[in-house]
Amino acid sequence: MLYPDSVVGTDSHTTMINGLGVAGWGVGGIEAEAVMLGQTISMVLPEVVGFKLTGDLTQGTTATDLVLTCVEMLRKRGVVGKFVEFYGPGVRNLSLADRATIANMAPEYGATMGYFPIDDRTMEYLRLTGRDEGHVQLIEKYLRQQGMFVTYDGSQAEPVYSGDIMNLDLGSVQPCLSGPKRPHDRVNFKDMKKDFTTCLTNKVGFKGFGIAEKDIAKTVKFQYEGKEYNFNHGTVVIGAITSCTNTSNPDVMLAAGLLAKNALERGLTTFPYIKKSLSPGSHVVTEYYKVAGVQDALDKLGFTTAGYGCMTCIGNSGEIPDAVQDAIIKNDMVAAAVLSGNRNFEGRVHPHTRANYLASPPLVVAYCLAGTVDIDFEKTPVGKDSKGKDVFLKEIWPTRDQVTKVTNGSIKPEMFTATYSNILKGSKMWQELDAPSGSLYSWDESSTYIHNPPFFKTTENELKPINNLKGAHCLLNMGDSITTDHISPAGKIAKNSPAARYLAERGIAEKDFNSYGSRRGNDEIMARGTFANTRMINKMVEKVGPTTKHIPSGKEMAIFDAAHEYQKAGLDTIILAGKEYGSGSSRDWAAKGPYLQGVKAVIAQSYERIHRSNLVGMGILPMQFKDGESAETHGLNGSEKFDIDMQGGKLKVGQDVVVKTSTGKTFTAVCRLDTDPEIAYFQNGGILHYVLRKLKNQA
Ligand code: SF4
């Protein structure tokens, strides 16, 4: 039997599969765990927005420029919870890898998925990646008979969508970056210097660092490996060719390699103190880099392969040199990271890079050659050649045609078949790991990496009514675009944080603290790491960072400590937030962490799809301010106490819920339990309890 394929995965970037014509999207880890135990996925039928592509990309642009343009357009349009389908004659001009790049970044533009229907290019890709010819022909025959194969020959009717149509001429796409703090804040490459300079003095926000006018030209000196360097605002300290999005696209990867080669031939080099890395998503990249003869040039410029996988893209950039870090901290400098990653939210890439720009792999190389983002490459040379002559970026930038030629000559189907035939074996080190046998895991109480979480400790056979919230305190009052990186950061464990305290009490040295991402098997660490982002802006306190005001005592303290105080006193807490609460990674700890901190409800202006569903999955009630309303319009500052009528849990989909505050203000917010199964999960205290009770009753 043949039928169109589909997939759901626990990574938000599961959406990449849509580039191949397979419908798929990311779900929260909590929902996925329930699915593995037999639960079905429920969702509201999404609107489908059509995105018509015409024309072709110009010589100087890359798929990264295109995807950043799409991200900006679609975020502006608002496609959270919707499907987007790309169609039109421009699609045939995009390689499968280009399509996958656009499909991958669906979470950044907010859509559930960005779909590309199947055509000749898809079939070419299946052949290139070593799929069996008979299988490829079978797929094509089936899709043609079903009317699902796009031909671009005028014989097919213009598609009709339930949502509106957006248009983009590929020829209008400009080279660009996105930042300094959000993936949808696109900046034209030619405007970078102007934009960065404006951001420096803008008040602190998504496009501002709040640097005083008198300090914008500040230069500080620092020593590195016996040589003196200048540090200015915008100095690049991290350059990473990273992320599944870009490293799966041979064109942009080979463009970076060719640029490195051209730069080296002209005698250019990168600054040694910049932490540079190359972390492809697949070993195939290493293979085609060898054939194309570019790995050596990248190595010489410092882009040695650090490993395969998420790396800097997820925040595992590791340490930067002490001298660089000191220069940043002591002088309050705005240091920059340039990475070909998907996300650049504050504190994600590195705690000390306040400006984080997403860019194509060749632009990552270019900015590491220049050493600063405060540069207009049209007017300023990227460096000097061995004879002291200025070299401009355009002199060494490979054209699209040159890149395509090298791509076509470097990639062979055997590379894919050889790499993927070994994929399940893993490395020698992996194979030699000592793994326990048996169907039950034997927990080791002394492990600081894996710990038995308390999620089911209080699960009882019978359902109990959900308690109303009476006098709940506000743990945090936050603004717009609070990401899952703010809620549950994956990066470094800061030395004075509650998680660091916990580790130090168990004899772990600071150098071994490692990252939250690596310790996510330990609930004790993750509860302490919840809201531990060093760039957190909580309106209840003056300073930026992971602190809040514990209302009963009036003291400012770490958010975990305040939550702990409330829990000890038997007091419930809620969270106030602005728009797009929980955007970014699908990270389930961003719901598990608040649950462990005792948060019972969130009232936000809007939610990102996966995070809302994760909150429901943990039994936390997501509520939404009515349109045009917010914490500000209701005059809330977080010092109030809140009564919320949970109706014993017997809420209805989208019903109004009354919120009363201790200051006398009463308002209604919308219950964001979106489907009947979600009501059942909430009544059960979360999806995992629901499934557990169901399994027990079936036994
Ligand atoms: S963190 Fe980056 S590399 Fe990892 S899955 Fe997400 S986008 Fe891909």
Detailed description of the structure:
It is a single chain. The chain has 699 residues and is an alpha/beta fold. It contains 25 helices and 25 strands. It has a seven-stranded mixed beta barrel. The protein has a four-stranded parallel sheet with strand order 5-4-3-6. Helix 9 (250-265) packs across helix 15. The longest helix has 16 residues, at 250-265. The mean pLDDT is 94. The chain binds iron/sulfur cluster. Iron/sulfur cluster (SF4) binds at residues 11, 13, 243-245, 310, 313-314, 341-342. Iron/sulfur cluster binds at residues 11, 13, 243-245, 310, 313-314, 341-342.
Q: Briefly, what is this?
A:
The chain has 699 residues and is an alpha/beta fold. It contains 25 helices and 25 strands.
Q: Layout of helices and strands, plus pairs?
A:
Blueprint: E1 6-9, E2 23-26, H1 29-36, E3 48-54, H2 63-77, E4 83-87, H3 96-104, H4 106-109, E5 113-115, H5 120-128, H6 133-145, E6 165-169, E7 176-178, E8 186-188, H7 192-201, E9 219-224, E10 227-232, E11 236-241, H8 244-247, H9 250-265, E12 275-278, H10 283-292, H11 295-300, H12 322-331, E13 336-339, E14 355-358, H13 361-370, E15 383-384, E16 390-391, H14 393-396, H15 400-410, H16 413-421, H17 428-432, E17 469-477, H18 484-487, H19 498-505, H20 523-529, E18 547-550, E19 555-558, H21 559-568, E20 573-576, H22 589-596, E21 599-604, H23 609-617, E22 621-625, E23 641-644, E24 656-661, E25 666-671, H24 676-683, H25 687-698
Helix pairs in contact: 2-3, 9-10, 9-13, 9-15, 10-15, 19-20, 20-22, 22-23, 24-25
Bound molecules: iron/sulfur cluster.
